[in-house]
Amino acid sequence: MSNYRIQGETGEWEVVIGLEVHAQVTSNSKLFSGASTMFGAEPNAQVSLIDAAMPGMLPVPNRECIRQAVRTGMAIEAQINKFSRFDRKNYFYADLPQGYQISQLYHPIVGEGSLVIEADEKAGIPQPKTIGIERIHVEQDAGKLMHDQHPTMSYVDLNRCGVALMEIVSMPHMTSPAEAGAYVRKLRSILRYVGSCDGNMEEGSMRADVNVSVRKVGSPELGTRTETKNVNSVRFVMAVIEQEARRQVDLIEEGGTVVQETRLYDPDKNETRSMRSKEDAHDYRYFPDPDLLPLELDDAFLEECRASLPELPDAKRARYTGELGLSDYNAAQLTAEVETFARFETLLAEAASQLGKSEAVVATQVANWTLSVAPGVIKSLGDDARMENNTAAANAAILKLVDAGTVSGGQAKEIYEIVLKTGREPDEIAETEGLKQQSDTGAIDAEIDKVLAANPDKVEEYRGGKDKLFGFFVGQTMKAMQGKANPQVINELLKAKLG
Amino acid sequence: MSVDKQTVAKIASLARIKMGDEELERMVPELNNILAWVEQLGEVDCSGVEPMTAVIPNTLRLRDDVVDADPLTGGGIRDKVLANAPAPEHGFFGVPKVIE
Is A435:A461 a contact under the CB 8 Å cutoff? Predict the structure, then answer.
């Protein structure tokens, strides 16, 4: 249970949150027409006669959109409904020429499921929490309106009209902005793993309707909720909850009542405001779409959907900490984004093969390289880093040099810089640029003898129990070797000599 | 089930059909006639009968995810789509300003 509380005049309040996330399904063509879904085309260039609702046109569903909704349902361990149906949600607005949105009210394709948000002590989530998901249904997106291009007209672009959306409806299980933020991030991660939505919130591929109500701490009854529409970032979702909860508490404490209504979020003012115009539009007069027969899925279709699911975030994380022995932190970082784990897994396989060791043995080294060393070097190079040189083979070759003790951590970074700038081979760079550490015991031995001979008093003190001086000898030897000696070898030899 | 004048006025407004008082009056019995006619179906005892969605056994056909596979149902036809629009502007449909 989260301990998020709103301090009111009359006591403490808690907040109850449910989210409806609209996720654009990744597909080439629209849900019911062959027009392209590509983002950023010329206005109305991707509109078919079906999307423009010309008389006599009939919708035919896109198998891929159905498949992606089913796979998404399976990824949240939801019940998949082999029988589902499309309904018409009637409303008149310039963004939807049909006059109704084809959606699924009565028989959605996916029933109850859930996902788990991770514990995040700092954010007030002391332990992992399961958030219920009520349903996922498939529906059409609407077009886009632009109001600022003409003094008296709005411009309508129907390119997005008819693109498939999944509406993913959570249960009211979240009780703080942080939990809601974690839920959206986890959902986005699952969608991206599955490949059913690109999760690009800036381009509007994912947006949320945020349902918020408040009640006195401990009260069993839910308060009246408001729904803030089309919130398009995790940060804004959290801001909406904070603002809306505060507004409702103040309103109730001043003797008012919360009205069940649709609201809009204004990020510039960081406040929500009522969308009065939508009030009586809520009468959608749903009915089954007579143009579409019920959607019936057979076992072969479902089996294919299940077989094509990748390893999902929770399973991957468990495997990283279990089989690969990575820290919780590294596992969480690596599994958060699809690109990150893809890069890690490619490099891990390559490094294991080049080093001739098991993945579990090299995993931590590869994880640290992937998460901190490599991004640091790439960032410091800025535009000088040519990413086509950033191959798994080159990265693995550097890790191999480090693993063999041929180069130090610092030298590895220098070699990586040159690789990124020029595409040269790591082995050759180490050789020609003198970026190798000396592991030759003979040479190091000789320098140690000199250092010890030059500092007989310190040797005496060390032997008398002043252990701290060990570092001094290491430093002096390293200096004599111009920083290129393998520190491990120095340590071993020194220990032996000082006895 | 029957409707009164107020309900008819609401349906008309939801459907964005402008109706005068006289028209609304005329609509009430017309709609009620239709509703009564349909309600006759309620007299049939269909307990235990599965709801039927089509008179011949048929299932929903799905299509492959291919862009513009059929020119009749594909995009790239902006001129056609805008041909009957009253106020096309720069490739957009122009409509009276609607702002939230």
Answer: no
pLDDT for A447: 83
Q: Which element (helix H / strand E) includes A314?
A: helix A313-322
Distances (CA, A) of A412 to A245, A464, B28: 52, 38, 85
Single pTM value for the model = 0.86
B15 chain-A contacts, CB cut-off 8 A: 92
CA distance A463 to A460: 5
B68 domain residue, yes or no: no
CATH top class, domain A441-498: mainly alpha
- Contact call for B75 and A35, based on CB within 8 A: yes
CATH code where residue B23 lies:
1.10.20
Strands A206-216 and A11-24 come out as: antiparallel
On whether any CB of chain A is under 8 Å from the CB of B100, the answer is yes
d(CA A233, CA A230): 9
Question: In Å, how far is A281's CA from the nearest CA of chain B?
Answer: 7
* Band of pLDDT at residue A297, cut at 50, 70 and 90: very high
Transcribe B2-21 into DSSP letters.
---HHHHHHHHHHTT----H
What is residue B63's DSSP assignment?
B
**For residues A214 and A216, what is the distance between their CA atoms, to the nearest angstrom?**
7
Residue A279, pLDDT score: 56
What ipTM score was computed for the predicted complex, to two decimals? 0.89
> For chain B, how many residues are written?
100
Domain ranges (residues) in chain A: 6-301, 317-432, 441-498
